[in-house]
Amino acid sequence: MKKYIILCEGKHDAAFLSLLMDNYDCGKYEVFHLRENQENNTGNTDKDFTIRRRNNREATKLRNFKKRSNKNVVLIKDEGDQDDCIEQFFEIVNDFNSTDDIYITLLLDYDNENIWHHLGNNIESYKGKKEILVFRNQYVKEHDLICDYLDNCIHRLVVYPHKYSMEVHIREITGIDIDKKGSHQQTNVINKFYSNLESEFIESIHTKIFERSV
User: Fold this and answer.
1) What is the residue extent of each domain of the chain?
2) Which of these ranges, 85-89, 104-108, 121-125, 169-173, has the smallest mean pLDDT?
3) What is the dihedral of CA 180, 185, 186, 188, to 10 degrees?
4) Which residues are registered as beta bridge partners of 49?
5) Among 9, 42, 123, 200, which residue's CB has the most CB atoms within a 10 Å radius?
6) Beta-carbon neighbour count of residue 59 at 10 Å?
7) pLDDT confidence of 40, banded at 50, 70, 90?
8) What tens digit of pLDDT does each residue of 91-119 get?
9) Which residue has the higher pLDDT, 91 or 51?
10) How big is the CA angle at 151 (ends 97 and 162), to the nearest 5 degrees?
11) DSSP string of the chain, one letter each residue
């Protein structure tokens, strides 16, 4: 059974991806928030993990997801930070090989041009770099180390198709600054945002994450 790990920068991206999973009926999935509930650690569900980078609970989560007995098809992993997200992507790519039937996707906003320098350095040093396919959006500048297309790709870097970020896109669509809302209100804003997106836009993200040439 093919499985997918999707790494994203924060909780808004994770909420958006959860709606994508529900609306496309992509199978069972779970969301893993690295930094959620640090101030109010009252639960122990998948959405309540409060862990430090690369600790045992995170490693256990990845090992359990890999097991055949785990029926989840998708693991959405909220890294809580752009730089951590990039580094974690390459670490996980190196930990999983092609025989695992696990495809890894990194979803990034284009709100910081330094990401291309950071990505370029990682891709250049990554021993399996030819297995990575990068989807640019129309706003992303050329970068010598990043290719538009590679045959037989396994893992992917996907840029959210907006010239700045998902949060800016949400404000443009809904007129609401999501970062100024509480958790419950943010969920409502994400739902409103998603429901007002054009189907072609949503389909393009789904395709970039889930359709593989292997």
Assistant:
1) 3-210
2) 121-125
3) -140
4) none
5) 9
6) 12
7) very low
8) 887 777 665 688 888 888 877 666 666 66
9) 91
10) 95
11) --EEEEEESSHHHHHHHHHHHHHHT---EEEEESSTTSS-----SGGG----TT-HHHHHHHHHHHSTT----EEEEE-SSHHHHHHHHHHHHHHS-GGG-EEEEEEE-SS-THHHHHHHHHHHH-TTGGGEEEE--TTPPP-TT--S--TT--EEEEE-SSSS-HHHHHHHHHS--GGGS-HHHHHHHHHHHHHTS-HHHHHHHHHHHH----
Contact 93, 132 (CB under 8 A): yes
Residue (of 169, 181, 184, 130) closest to 153 by Cα position: 130
CA distance 189 to 193: 6
Written as six digits, the tokens of 63 are 């090992």
pLDDT at site 33: 83
């991806």: which residue's tokens?
A: 17
Render pLDDT for 127-159 as a digit per residue (tens, 0 to 9): 555 555 555 544 444 433 344 333 346 777 788
